[in-house]
Design a protein that fits this description.
6 helices, Elongation factor P hydroxylase, 3-stranded mixed beta sheet, globular, mainly alpha, EpmC, 187 residues, single chain, 3 strands
């Protein structure tokens, strides 16, 4: 299975650009979310170094962020860089469980390998297996209780494109139909 960046970018933009004014951008450096401003009329989900897994991870953060958070750079969250102590790492992991659970569901939908990210190479030893268990448990809870609306629309689109070999256009249409059906349920 080939996972091309131009596919994931076109799929994301096709599903979310018109309704949410948000684009997926392959970045040169660290990932970042930038809201629209006076110069750029759309929000930008920028993923790191052209990595497919980074795109899925950053999309998962965007799918969780509410309206207010999506108006703030990096959703208004702090990021403690590599080299966190044990307490800082525990805080990092607690806020990363939900997005990484969505990333796991996205990875399954597009048949892409998933690895948890503890993101702390310069810090103390981290129990990756324990963190993976927490991520898998959260993914199972999402499956049982429901995935956030934008995340589920994205996941349905990924399944159509990667598992059912739908064209980009058809996969985007499936994702948009899913979004519309959820919006109609709210009315």
């Amino acid at each position: 299975m080939t996972h091309r960046l131009d596919d994931i970018i076109a799929l994301f933009d096709g599903l979310f650009l018109s309704r949410y004014r948000t684009r997926l951008i392959s970045g040169e450096d660290e990932p970042l979310y930038l809201p629209a401003d006076d110069v750029v009329p759309y929000h930008r989900v920028i993923f790191a170094h052209g990595f497919y897994a980074s795109a899925l991870h950053e999309i998962s953060h965007w799918c969780i962020a509410g309206d207010r958070r999506r108006q703030l750079e990096d959703y208004g969250y702090w990021y403690q860089p590599d080299g966190r102590d044990a307490e800082q790492q525990q805080v990092f992991e607690s806020v990363e469980v939900a997005p990484q659970a969505l990333e796991l569901l996205f990875s399954r939908a597009c048949l892409h390998p998933f690895n948890v990210s503890v993101d702390n190479l310069g810090g103390p030893e981290v129990d990756r297996a324990r963190f993976r268990e927490r991520v898998e448990a959260r993914a199972a809870r999402y499956e049982a209780e429901g995935v956030p609306t934008r995340a589920e629309a994205f996941r349905q689109m990924l399944k159509a494109f990667y598992q059912q070999q739908a064209s980009r256009t058809d996969a985007i249409h499936i994702g948009k139909q899913w979004l519309r059906s959820r919006q109609e349920l709210r009315v």
